[in-house]
Specification:
The protein is mainly alpha-helical. It contains five helices and no strands.
Length: about 70
């Protein structure tokens, strides 16, 4: 299992832009989501602008993170 870190922010944001015309993800929101994964405490994420206003982008982001964490290295 691979770990997604804040170093992956640029690559994941690029992937989001391939699927969506406008990308609203900020580095702080990305960091909050990664922290939520680690701590299994999503309260901070629920108050983000991304979660509240851009649910489709939020869901796609979770999918992209999940793909990276479950991908097996070649």
């Amino acid at each position: 299992m691979n770990e997604v870190t804040t170093k992956d922010y640029t690559a994941i944001k690029k992937e989001l832009k391939e699927h969506r015309r406008v990308c609203h993800l900020t580095k702080l929101e990305f960091q909050a989501i990664l922290s939520a994964y680690a701590a299994n405490d999503w309260q901070a994420v629920y108050s983000t602008r991304l979660y509240k206003n851009y649910g489709g982008e939020y869901c796609l982001l979770l999918e992209l993170i999940a793909r990276r964490t479950t991908a097996t290295p070649a």
